[in-house]
Amino acid sequence: MAHPIIAFIGVPYDGAATLGWPGARYAPAEVRRHLTWMLNRVQGGQIYWVDEDRIVPFDRGQLHDAGDAAVVPHDLMATLAAARAKTAEETRNGRVPAVVGGDDSILFPAVAGFHDAVAGTVAIVHFDAHLDLMDESPAQGRYSHSSGMRRALELPRVDQRRCVQVGTRSFNFPSSKRFIDEIGLAELPARTVRRCGTEWTFARIGEITRGADHIFLSVDMDVLDPAHAPGVGWHEPGGLTSGELLDLLVGLAPRVGGFALNEVNPLTDAGPKTTILAANLVFQFAVAAAGRNQR
Ligand SMILES: [Mn+2]
Known about the structure:
By secondary structure, the protein is an alpha/beta fold.
């Protein structure tokens, strides 16, 4: 079996960032720019993966740039539909979609497009400081960056009891906690990850998702501590380190069928710190996913 091809799909849209700071629309172009530097290290279909101290097969073609979804800046629903259709199209073409938003409203069309294109059940592994479980509100409607996980959990073949939220923290709505308990959604707060470590967390994610036909990995960049990723849509103290997130992402990648990375915000960044990290996450995901058939 050939190595999986990762399809980079940009969704340069932040019109649903109704709370916090807009600017994530600039992320896909910045992440692409930094990825070109990382691809520089590919020689003759191989790359030296220093973290693992081994040379691994990796061809430039394994990270395919599928371009941007046809966002409509004044029309949220048209944008979500375009992102969903493009994600479904790339998945149907046999590629692993890597959707780079955009604000975290894009979590929903990324999961939905993947869900449209595959048979069987889907488990969502959702890394985020926030729950994104709001049903609707007068200020944010039903499809903002606070509702993406709620909408994704409503998809018919998303297996709610095999989904997990990782790195969540601070405070949120009691109504969201009641919803979590009602559907049996698993939570691994940032404090739990810190206390129990990434090895334990990785094993626990494996237990929760076991039995699902597909895993979709969605990362809101604010799952990281603001010290590691200042360029996001809002700052929540007490987040994961970049090393913790990289370790978990690399471990999960070989099992993941679709990936989304949202809320990277070049306008609030400290230099290019967060956009370089975002490109690194995409590249590490691609290299680790390529190792799927070699283990
Ligand atoms: Mn968030």
